[in-house]
UniProtKB/TrEMBL annotation:
It catalyses: ATP + protein L-histidine = ADP + protein N-phospho-L-histidine. Keywords: ATP-binding, Kinase, Membrane, Nucleotide-binding, Phosphoprotein, Transferase, Transmembrane, Transmembrane helix, Two-component regulatory system. It comes from Caldilinea aerophila. GO terms for molecular function: ATP binding; phosphorelay response regulator activity; phosphorelay sensor kinase activity; protein kinase activator activity. Pfam families: HATPase_c, PAS_8. Its main location: membrane. InterPro entries: BphY/WalK/GraS-like (IPR050351), HATPase_C_sf (IPR036890), HATPase_dom (IPR003594), His_kinase_dom (IPR005467), HisK_dim/P_dom (IPR003661), HisK_dim/P_sf (IPR036097), PAS (IPR000014), PAS-like_dom_sf (IPR035965). The keyword Repeat does not apply. It comes from the Bacteria. This is histidine kinase.
Length: 390
């Protein structure tokens, strides 16, 4: 407006326009920053900014998830030291590489987003708690800074585990009686016009009836399981080591595996923190994996149980194939399928072993996998707490 009554100076006008433009740009940046800060402060997910291991910033949700108060945050505590007070870090193979979490590729090392887990195991007074930790490899803050996201995935993990366990039980419990019924009825149908004796007919009918009765009992079990609440197993449902061989034999028979041996080198009365359904699901997945990845799908599997420091060390050894170091590090992560490096033909979502690990981790146990040194194949070691330890 001043230029209306004054001589026009183009240089002064340009200077004023530049100043106003910069001020407007600065205001917009401030507004965008305020909006961003409001979103972070009110986010349902936790966000951390780390300098090396020190926590430089944590939004309110991250403070809640990590049980971190303002006074402690002001001291810039160590991230790893803080989480170790309340959580177990899994899978340990990847956490042990912290902060060098790059991925080895044919083109060299690549900084990628890495997802890990923090797990507060189930106790008699509190349920399990799962946190998903995502370290964003592409968002580096100077050289040592990292952006980390925390998500509470407890409901997702327990729901996925229950669904998988339910699917395993249904498939296992219903197939056997169904085959008994169908096989008997098929034999009757095929021999309807032949000279089959009344005794043979009676045997086949009895076999079909037994299959129907077992099927009805299995359906009742499925209904009870589906309507039951997802709560920690009650006292009396826990599995003892003495019951393990029969459970292994049952699962191996369902998978048509005839070269599975069990060695119990600990007192049979020792009670695990796992119930029979959880152990059945674990055994089903481990034995199915051994069959799936064996070149002829006829593995020789040895399962042994020993006692160490009031914990059961369950070792499952097969004679299938070796895994690469990267596969060994990531086999416990969801949707990671080691088989894709071999043929790409094995079916599945890559959820079996991660769900095995989720059951073990939730009870405060540990999972390890290594290649055999004496022959092809892998050794899976599950460390399972006992009621004696509790």
């Amino acid at each position: 407006d001043d230029f209306v009554s004054k001589p026009f100076d183009s240089g002064e006008l340009r200077a004023r326009v530049r100043t106003i433009t910069r001020l407007n740009r600065y205001r917009r940046l401030l507004e965008e920053r305020e909006r961003f800060e409001w979103m972070i402060e009110h986010a349902d997910e936790g966000y951390l900014i780390l300098d090396g291991e020190q926590i430089r910033y944590a939004n309110p949700r991250a403070q809640t998830l990590l049980n971190l108060d303002e006074d402690t945050l002001a001291t810039h505590p160590s991230f790893l030291a803080l989480v170790d007070k309340h959580f177990n870090r899994e899978p340990k193979e990847l956490w042990n590489r912290w902060p060098n979490l790059w991925e080895e590729t044919p083109q060299g090392r690549v900084e990628t987003d890495v997802t890990l887990f923090l797990i507060a195991p189930e106790t008699p007074t509190s349920p399990v708690n799962w946190l998903e930790v995502t370290i964003f490899g592409q968002f580096r803050i100077q050289e040592s800074g990292r952006l980390v996201r925390l998500r509470d995935v407890t409901t997702l993990k327990t729901g996925l585990r229950d669904m998988w366990s339910f699917h395993t039980m249904v498939m296992h419990k219903l197939n056997t009686p169904m085959h008994m019924m169908l096989g008997s009825m098929e034999l009757l149908t095929m021999n309807v016009h032949t000279n089959i004796s009344s005794g043979e007919i009676l045997d086949l009918v009895e076999m079909a009836a037994n299959g129907a009765q077992r099927l009805a009992a299995a359906v009742n079990d499925v209904i009870q399981y589906a309507t039951a609440l997802s709560t920690p197993a009650s006292i009396g449902e826990r599995l003892t080591l003495g019951e393990l061989p029969a459970l292994v034999k049952e699962v191996a028979g369902h998978l048509e595996l005839d070269q599975v041996t069990v060695q119990i080198e600990a007192p049979e009365e020792i009670t695990l923190v796992l119930d029979s359904r959880e152990m059945e699901s674990i055994l089903f997945e481990l034995l199915e994996n051994a069959k799936k990845f064996h070149p002829q799908h006829r593995p020789t599997v040895t399962l042994s149980a020993t006692l160490r420091n009031d914990r059961v060390d369950l070792k499952v050894q097969d004679d299938g194939i070796h895994l690469s170091p990267d596969q060994l590090n990531r086999v416990w992560l969801p949707y990671y399928q080691g088989e894709r490096y071999f043929t790409g033909e094995v079916k599945g979502m890559g959820l079996g072993l991660p769900l095995v690990a989720s059951i073990i981790w939730e009870h405060g146990g540990d999972c390890r996998i290594i290649n055999r040194e004496d022959a092809p194949g892998v050794i899976i070691r599950l460390t399972i707490p006992t009621m004696r330890e509790g």
